[in-house]
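Posting for a labmate who doesn't have an account.
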Amino acid sequence: MAGLEGFDFFEIVIEKSCSRQRLPDKFAKMLAGREPHKVKLREAGSGLHRLCWWEVLVVFDGEGHMYLGPGWEHFARAHELQLGYFLVFRYDGDAMFTVKMFDNTMCRMYYQHDDDASNGSRAGMKTRSGVGMTRSSLFWLMTNMLWWWLTTTLLCWWRMTTLLWWWRTTTLLWWWQTTTTRWWWRTTTSRWWRRLQSHSLATGTCQLW
């Protein structure tokens, strides 16, 4: 299987018994003459548990179709695989496959690791499924938080700007009304005083009443 490192393919769980899992015919043809007797499976993103793997035997039917046989049922049960689940395989070399599993909601499944051994090897089982936060989920959360912060900041800025505009408008309006009133009062008083002076000069008196 040399030269196939990094090769990816996907399969869908279509057999209810989970006793075996068929692999693509194209992949089987690429192995012509180099068919392995067994492979090792591990969950993608296992982190420090890179030595945790499952040993599965490879079988072929009469038509040449390639299957993951004995050992696959244990892997499927440990990872709670069900009908319709979506599996993404990547060949890493040395008969090792990394597997990503997606449930019927099209979301990737995550598991808690266990230190128990499997098949008499160093293979550790992953027995309890859990919900993990992927990078995309974290990015979505950070994006929403940033959007919320920007929206709140812009809203506060808009309110402060509106309040300042209202204060300036009110102040200018008050100043204009005050100035207009003073101007009117001065103009009226000046006219009244000039008329009074003209009347006083005409009558020769300065009596105001």
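Reply:
Got it, the structure tokens are right above this. The CA atoms of residues 52 and 123 lie 5 Å apart.
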